[in-house]
Amino acid sequence: MRMIKHTVKSALKISANISPEFCAKAHYYIKFKKKLNLTNPTNFNEKIQWLKFNELNNDIYTRCADKYKVREYISSKGCGEILNELYGVYDSPQDIDYAALPERFALKCNHGAGYNIICSDKSSLDVDKTNRQLSKWLSEDFSSHFIEPQYRKIERKILCEKFIENERGGFPDDYKFYCFNGKPYAVMVCVGREKGTPKFYYFDMNWNPLPFEDTVKLINKYDLPEMPDGFVKMKQYAMKLASDFKFVRADFYLLNGEVIFGELTFTPSAGLDVSLQEADVILGGQLRL
Question: Most buried residue, 24, 116, 164, 201, by most Cβ within 10 Å?
Fold first, then answer.
């Protein structure tokens, strides 16, 4: 079975550059056990797939998917104050002067998702292992994994940013605003990540819980998180940053009332999120193509 899965994965990766639409349809069928409807998409995952072939090749998406160049875009929208402090930008791991970096920092590649190394103690960092990992990531065409064209033309870089943590010494809560046709509609709140058991809640823009699967289950077990003091500010930033897009998810951290920009995401879970269920229909209804 493992060999079969590996063979399928390899075949899809090869086909990504030859026939990206076939590859996207194959990934969708494997995930959902049904055909992808690109002619008349209705749910959220289908519409994200549609955007891949009809919107995301435009230069503005490449610019804003690039974790380095998006900083220029954020500043151009009058939101430069929410950018995390940048220590350095590098073409290769060999360019990084680790001795000049602070004791704690975050390294990330700019051309995909999940390319992050969080260093909370430089004295215990294995530099050789870190550089090998960064080199591996730089060699990867992230866009071909699940057909996400906004990443294809990004000039690959390594970023080093300020390490951020909350007052408990853990990751700050993050807030992901689902914005449709220039307006924020819902926010997904992730709490408890530092404990290794994150919980995801969905709220509307008045902080009313939405009837999505995760939220409904959590309401029955836990108290809902209260609206944070910085919620209105984050909502305003999300509206500014969403104005140019049919859909974007604007991600922020909130640290002691201070808003810190995370990223702009155009294809959450690559349009293959099997966990959405009811949310797939509700969010899909918000996105006008």
Answer: 24
pTM: 0.92
Q: Rounded CA gap, 33 and 17, in Å?
A: 23
Range of the domain at 139: 60-162
CB 260 within 8 A of CB 164: yes
* Number of domains within the chain: 2
Tell whether 130 and 77 lie within a shared domain. yes
Structure tokens at 23: 């590859």
**For the purposes of burial, counting CB atoms within 10 Å of the CB of 188, is it exposed (0-12), middle (13-18) or buried (19 or more)?**
buried
CA–CA gap between residue 29 and residue 34 (Å, rounded) = 5
Residue type, 188: M
What is the distance between the alpha carbons of residues 222 and 199, in angstroms, rounded to a whole number? 10
Judge whether 22 lies within some domain: no
pLDDT confidence of residue 215:
62
Position 286 in a domain: no
Spatial separation of the C-alpha atoms in residues 79 and 237, rounded to whole Å = 7
pLDDT tens string 3-51? 555 455 555 665 677 789 999 999 999 999 999 999 999 999 999 999 9
pLDDT in the model for residue 168: 74
Q: What is the mean pLDDT of residues 229-237?
A: 96
Residue 158 domain-assigned (yes or no)? yes
